[in-house]
Amino acid sequence: MRSFQVVSFGKPLCEAVKATPTPSGSEVVVKITACGVCHSDVHLWEGYFDLGGGRKAPVGGGKPDYLPLTLGHEPAGEVIAVGPDAKGVKVGDRRVVYPWIGCGACSICKAGDEHVCNNGRVIGVNRDGGYADHVVVPHPRYLVDFPGVPEALAATYACSGITAYGALKRAGKLAPDQPLVIIGAGGVGFNGIRLAKAVTGQAPVVVDIDLGKKDAALSAGASAFIDANAPDAGKQIFGLTKGAWAVIDFVGSDKSSVLGFNALRRGGRMVIVGLFGGTFAVPVPLFPLKSATVMGSYVGSLAEFLELRDLVVSGALPPMPIKTRKLDEINAVMEEMVARKIVGRVVLTP
User: What 3-state DSSP class applies to 23?
Assistant: First the structure.
């Protein structure tokens, strides 16, 4: 079994070779054929999340035994071995791995929200993931069939897709006079653009700093594209929307969050998804004066993942640009992610 691991934060991932795992109990071993590369992997590789003002939150709670770690939380592939207690799956099945696995015992998990469990066992985040040619999945319930969908595309729904879907669901179904604004047209944001009409009923106004993403965003379903660097970006948003009913911030920076909040009309809702970092600085009186709701959204539940699968399999979504790269190219891909040179999604193919 080959994998590429973070051994030291911010340093190139190192290749590791060890015995291919043997499953026990309800475990399943999946031979990986595709694993998406997510921008959140950059933060995990760097070792921290930027809280603004020079403050940093260490990944893994700063635990000294967090590394080495194999990143990759968008794996898909073929089942090659099952433990004696693994039911409902067999060798040869091809599945996408739902990675947001909780402890299974707390009230959060029992309510079906294990993706926000405080003691999660998340594949590629705090247990070895898909930057490898094999991965161990603790139970068959986390293996989801995407019939008729190419595995390189299907893999991206395990994080990019479910994160966008979960955020859009929190924005809710929108009436024709309730405009939607999406900030950020990167990998997750691009999925949000593709899903927006089907989930909310609205084609979004898209805002991004990269004009090179304009054509792709419009092709994916955006009603308009605004340059976030334009000095009058806020006025342009208001001119198109007369105030947004819902804003989804897939960037999550100090600038994007303020731009999004200022774009809201009274009674509007803002969903912050991105992890770019910084401080959300808004005058407190504006919250009651706008009667605004601001919430965070972290990926999505297993039930929502199954809803998303049904939507994807229906064929109702615009195409997603996918670039496949070899597993050995992961360090070059990470550099491109840091430089924000990627449109759509990069998928590793071991």
Answer: coil
